[in-house]
Amino acid sequence: MTVHFHEEDLPAGVLEGSSALAVDTETMGLVTPRDRLCVVQISDGSGDEHLVRFSPGSEYEAPNLTKILADESRVKLYHYARFDLAAIQYYLGVMAAPVFCTKIASKLVRTYTDRHGLKNLAGELLNAEISKQQQSSDWGGPELNEAQREYAASDVRFLHALRDELTVRLEREGRMHLAQGCFDFLPTRALLDIAGWEDRDIFHHSNGTFA
Ligand code: MN
Question: From the CA of 134, how far away is ligand 1's center (Å)?
Fold first, then answer.
């Protein structure tokens, strides 16, 4: 297991193939147009993770990375895809779908708990330990330290195994079609976030104030 570090793009040929890709992003914060994309992490499930770091003032021209993210023949695995899809669309200009979201899957089958964080899932389903110590660290600095690199990599390390286990449970409970419908909607949900509907549930009967 190796963590590979790259600046501004993946090298040509890396991560090519047809396997599902685990994807995560680190940003300066939770407001996508304000808080720039700093790191994209990717793994094809073979045991290695690739980190692509973007500098302040980056042009976000990453043809090798965007080519594999936009490849419609490869499923992208996320934990909370809604956020990552919006960040990738906004900064890199591609919709990184089709999607499997482990958080949505968890909410549809782990109805006995309200703990749907990645750390909770890895612990309960895989008996794996993920540290969340670096979750709110400064991803925009000139160097990513060892702890940040390890944290960033660990966020994509377990997504393939989680997808497999959650799929078994979704099928067991007869909810795979509900999950798939949600996954298929996530690109549109991310576009609604970018377009200004981030706080508004347009499926709800009433949204209170008109805006
Ligand atoms: Mn992360």
Answer: 9
Parse the chain into domains and list their residue ranges.
Answer: 3-197
Q: What is the pTM of this model?
A: 0.95
Give 40 Cα–ligand 1 centroid separation in angstroms.
9
Q: How does pLDDT run across 51-82, given as a tens digit for each residue?
A: 999 999 999 999 999 999 999 999 999 999 99
The CA distance from 113 to 48, in Å, is 31
Ligand 1 centroid to Cα of residue 83, in Å, is: 11
User: Model confidence over 145-173: pLDDT tens digits?
Assistant: 999 999 999 999 999 999 999 999 999 99
Smallest CA-to-CA distance from 154 within 70, 79, 69 is with 79
Give the Å distance between the CA of 54 and the centre of ligand 1.
15
**φ and ψ at residue 69, rounded to 5 degrees:** -65, -35
Q: Answer whether CATH 3.30.420.10 is correct for domain 3-197.
A: yes
